[in-house]
Design goal:
- The protein is α+β, with helices and mostly antiparallel strands.
- 17% of the residues lie in helices and 29% in strands.
- A 7-stranded mixed sheet has the order 11-9-12-14-25-24-22, with helices on both faces. Strands 10, 13, 15, 16, 17 and 18 form a 6-stranded mixed sheet that branches. The chain has a 4-stranded antiparallel sheet with strand order 1-3-6-5.
- Helix 5 packs across helix 9.
- The longest helix has 17 residues.
- The protein is globular.
């Protein structure tokens, strides 16, 4: 990337002060709603850093129009806020903030920094780390940061755009003292029984941005893509092989990573009035928990002509509600439970079973991962973990893995576990059917995956 062309331009200040940015999340204070600064005290006794928070965007977003306004608050109860400044850089971090921001963030009025905003206009695709610094009158400094992922369409020729969707809502659900702590504790009570204890486990924080977890050494090793994928080493082991193979399979493509929050907010569509697809292909991993809006948007993406490749099974199993202000998700329904905010009780296993059957073409195969399930056609030497079964007669089988159930199996033995494609609307779904992350180190599988992206995979490649 040529940083010399990465210019962030300030929009008309008067326009910013006169109105609230259209993308502001619900419930956020507008620029015109100003609270007075607290009384200032002598700076000699002030050794506490001021607080500074970014209120918009509420998560590290992926944008396609190159325009965003970062908004936030700053407060210092002792000597008072003196100024707020902003700095930015792209990746890899070279030790300095190479993106010039001019001028500094705008205070709400008359140097009142209780609310501030900084408008950004980005003209080059890339991942931008923006750091906000608040300084008080005693010389103490406080910091807050976010990451902006800008995916802009080149002006010359049409370039394929491919995005992985990081399952950030599912990552949150699996966090400590989260959904699964509750599931394991209460197991399967009778239907109709209401549980009113430990309900805090059903509301969990979404993951912070990757750069926020890094020190300066770590920042120097992040690229535009690794600054977006989960930082956990175990997760990196399966993320990067898939990312690398996509880049090799479609070398001309723009490849990026967005989050569940992006899909929830409709960032997979362009900002034009027709809301056309902003990407050609979306790649999903273990997106077990999604919001209703995210589910609807993904379905609409396919119907409008997009392709979704489901690398993993156990997708769309539970519905959550996303709270932008608090950056949390809360269970609504699915995974055998429902939660109305006051009590939890038994409910359906797969939240959108019939709808998913229609447009995705299959459903999660209910079983225990420890069951002795094998495959008579097993070209990847795959070990049973979690699988999807084909549940739509319109699905086109690419590879049938010949699932074999153990003696005494109580489920449906007619189930077909396969890699398949299904046309829906103007688009297409490709389902691996297996737990793809278990095969991230399997070169034969990764080559097959690459062929799927270029529509060259067929049963003749792998059927025994």
């Amino acid at each position: 990337m040529k940083q010399s062309v990465s210019v962030l331009v300030v929009m008309i200040i008067a326009l910013l002060i006169g109105s609230t940015f259209a993308g502001t999340s619900a419930g956020q204070n507008s620029i015109s709603n100003i609270t007075a600064l607290p009384s200032q005290v002598s700076s000699k006794n002030d050794s506490k850093a001021p607080s500074v928070n970014i209120t918009y965007p509420s998560y590290p977003p992926t944008i396609t129009n190159g325009r965003i306004i970062i908004e936030g608050t700053a407060n210092d109860s002792e000597s008072g806020i003196k100024t707020v400044s902003a700095s930015a850089h792209v990746f890899p971090f070279g030790g300095n903030f190479s993106i010039n921001l001019a001028p500094s963030p705008i205070s709400s009025e008359n140097n009142n920094w209780s609310h501030w905003s900084v408008p950004l206009l980005i003209n080059t695709t890339g991942t931008y780390r923006v750091v906000i610094e608040a300084s008080d009158n005693a010389g103490n400094n406080g910091y807050s940061e976010t990451t902006i992922n800008a995916i802009l369409s080149p002006s010359e020729a049409a370039v394929p755009k491919i995005a992985f969707v990081r399952p950030s809502f599912t990552e949150a659900a699996y966090s400590d003292h989260g959904f699964y702590t509750f599931y394991y504790k209460y197991k399967f009570p009778p239907f109709g029984k209401k549980i009113t204890t430990d309900l805090d486990m059903f509301t969990v924080k979404t993951p912070i941005s990757v750069p926020e977890r890094q020190n300066e050494t770590g920042l120097r090793h992040l690229s535009n893509l690794t600054a977006l994928v989960p930082s956990d080493p175990d997760l990196q082991k399966f993320w990067m092989p898939f990312v690398d193979h996509v880049k090799k399979a479609v070398p001309s493509a723009i490849v990026t990573v967005m989050r569940d929050e992006d899909v929830n907010d409709g960032h997979i569509f362009s900002t034009d009035k027709n809301k056309t697809n902003a990407y050609d292909i979306l790649l999903l991993f273990h997106n077990e928990y999604v919001t209703q809006d995210e589910y609807n948007n993904l379905k609409q993406f396919v119907s409008k002509g997009g392709t979704i490749v489901f690398i993993d099974s156990n997708i769309f199993y539970g519905q959550v509600r996303y709270d932008k202000d608090n950056r949390t998700v809360t269970l609504v329904k699915g995974h055998n439970w429902q939660f109305d905010g006051k009590a939890a009780s038994r409910s359906v296993s797969e939240r959108w079973y019939n709808d998913t059957k229609e447009w995705v073409g299959g459903n999660f195969l209910e079983n225990d991962i420890h069951n002795n399930i094998t495959f008579t056609n097993n070209p990847f030497n795959y070990t049973h973990f979690e699988e999807q079964f084909v549940n739509n007669p319109k699905a086109k089988i690419i590879v049938d893995y010949g699932i074999k159930f153990p003696k005494g199996w109580s489920g449906t033995i007619e189930s077909t576990v396969a890699t398949y494609s299904l046309n829906y609307g103007k688009g297409k779904v490709i389902m691996i059917g297996l737990s793809g992350v278990q095969l991230a180190d399997n070169e034969k599988f990764l080559n097959f995956f690459s062929k799927l992206l270029t529509h060259k995979a067929s049963c003749s490649d792998l059927c025994l």
